[in-house]
Amino acid sequence: MVPRAVETLQSVSVIACEDTRHSKKLLNHFSIDKPCIAYHDHTDKKSSYSILKRLRDGEDVALISDAGTPLISDPGYRLVSEARQQGYSVIPIPGASAVIAALSVSGLPTDKFKFMGFLPAKSTQRKTSLSAVKGNTETMVYYEAPHRITDTIADMLDIFGADRPAFMAREISKTFETYLQGSLAELLDLVRADSNQQRGEMVLVIGGAATETETVSVDAEKILGLLLKELPLTKAASLTAKITGGDKKQLYQLGLAIQDKN
């Protein structure tokens, strides 16, 4: 909990919670004594109406979830949409997010990634979803429930291949947090071998598909080698690319390697 979140919860009129029992533990820990109301996936229109009425009456309402940043694969977006449509201000209080936390320690590329949320519960539909992103080159982040974790990793192995790099974060920031890294085959073995790894809240981070790198032709390498004897590296790589139709950046890297050898 960041200080701003504690201050916000202490200042609002009421707190909308995904589960009031879970939230009460958090609020008691920080000595926050505010009324709580339920707002979750199964909440009906009456709950939204009740919250919007409070806003109309001039009250401030905080929305929190069971774990991590609200609205990231959590209920609440409908309430935010309705509140904004009626002209009310909705302000985020940044805090813990399992997506970013897991990604940051996965050791997999973070310059480009996709958050995929939860996969379908049934294997056939799950494999269809995975097949649609098999060729994605960016890192992918999934949430998964404990009772499906082994089946999901097994399906990923079938679709992505046993050697695809993978990482699993479990119970982030909690007492029994664990982090597992390896290929999908290795990850599946680790999870199957330890029942503790099949409990709690999981985040799966999967490496993207490997890109096919173009190889420099023998002729291009010979031409580059000859030009390097007469020209600066940048000019030699550019001219070789024009002559052979090769990639200038790749030829530049090859030129560096040739210079290092000499």
Strand order of the biggest β-sheet: 4-5-8-6-7
Provide the gyration radius in Å.
26 Å
Task: Tell me the distance between the termini.
Answer: 57 Å
Fill in the CATH topology of the largest domain. Methyltransferase, Cobalt-precorrin-4 Transmethylase, Domain 2
Order of helices and strands: HEHEHEHHEHEHEEHEHHH
How much of the sequence lies in strands comes to 15-25%
Q: Which second-level CATH architecture of the largest domain applies?
A: 2-Layer Sandwich
Please tally the β strands and state the result.
8
The number of helices is 11
Low-pLDDT stretches are none
* Total number of distinct structural domains: 3
Q: Which structural class do you get from the secondary structure elements?
A: alpha/beta
The CATH superfamily of the largest domain is Tetrapyrrole methylase, C-terminal domain
Concise account of the structure shown:
The chain is an alpha/beta fold and 262 residues long.
Q: How would you portray this structure in words?
A:
With 262 residues, the chain is an alpha/beta fold. The chain folds into three domains: 3-85, Cobalt-precorrin-4 Transmethylase, domain 1, CATH 3.40.1010.10; 98-206, 2-Layer Sandwich (Methyltransferase, Cobalt-precorrin-4 Transmethylase, Domain 2), CATH 3.30.950; 218-261. Helix content is 44%, strand content 15%. A five-stranded mixed sheet has the order 4-5-8-6-7. Helix 2 (20-29) links the parallel strand 1 (14-17) and strand 2. It is elongated, with a radius of gyration of 26 Å. The termini are far apart. The model has no long low-confidence stretch (mean pLDDT 91).
